[in-house]
Design a protein that fits this description.
Blueprint: E1 2-4, H1 10-18, E2 27-31, H2 49-59, E3 62-64, E4 66-67, E5 87-92, E6 100-104, E7 115-117, E8 130-133, H3 139-153, H4 163-184, E9 186-189
Parallel strand pairs: 1-2, 4-6
Antiparallel strand pairs: 2-5, 3-5, 6-7, 8-9
Length: about 200
Amino acid sequence: MNIYSDSSHLALKYLKDTEANIRNLLIMTGNFNICDSSWDLSFPYHSSISNNLIIVVDSFNLDLSSPTNQVPTRYSDTPGKSNSIIDLMFLQSRLTELNNHSIYSDWHLMSDYALLMVTIPIVEENINLTRFSIAKNSKEEASFIKDVSSLIRNLDMFNLSDIDRLENIINSLASNIERTWKKNSKLINISRHSKSWWNNKCN
């Protein structure tokens, strides 16, 4: 989520007062227009408005990210006015893959703000395109139900003297149901969009 909170801190006040319910937020960053000794060692004071920021951050389950290089994020063009750190980044709490960001002060060029950058790792995901299925009201469905009913009726429920025997019976039932499913089901595409379109002509 990208934030711009002006010198009156309107965006920050809005987020705090409305108690915005935003779940699974990975990153919140932007210009918060708050100078504070908590993130700027050259600034001697603690700002009371930063307390509201911490309340909002905690509600989103985020932590203040420490930059790999402690340099200003805003560069003043007003003589006598020092540079400052008012652009911040907050990352999801206890997420080891995201633990800090970098400030690229040499990239700001004509802008008065530096670039903040964080690397987000993307894990390769295997998306299944097919699955085994039994058509509703088919003879395969009738056969599957008949076989499973027979398995349940023939369960040996006598002499359940301990939990190990109970677990053996349950595991055996699960294995038999799985075999029955495989016998009656067939492999289908999950949706019509799952059909492969790449072929030798595409090459």
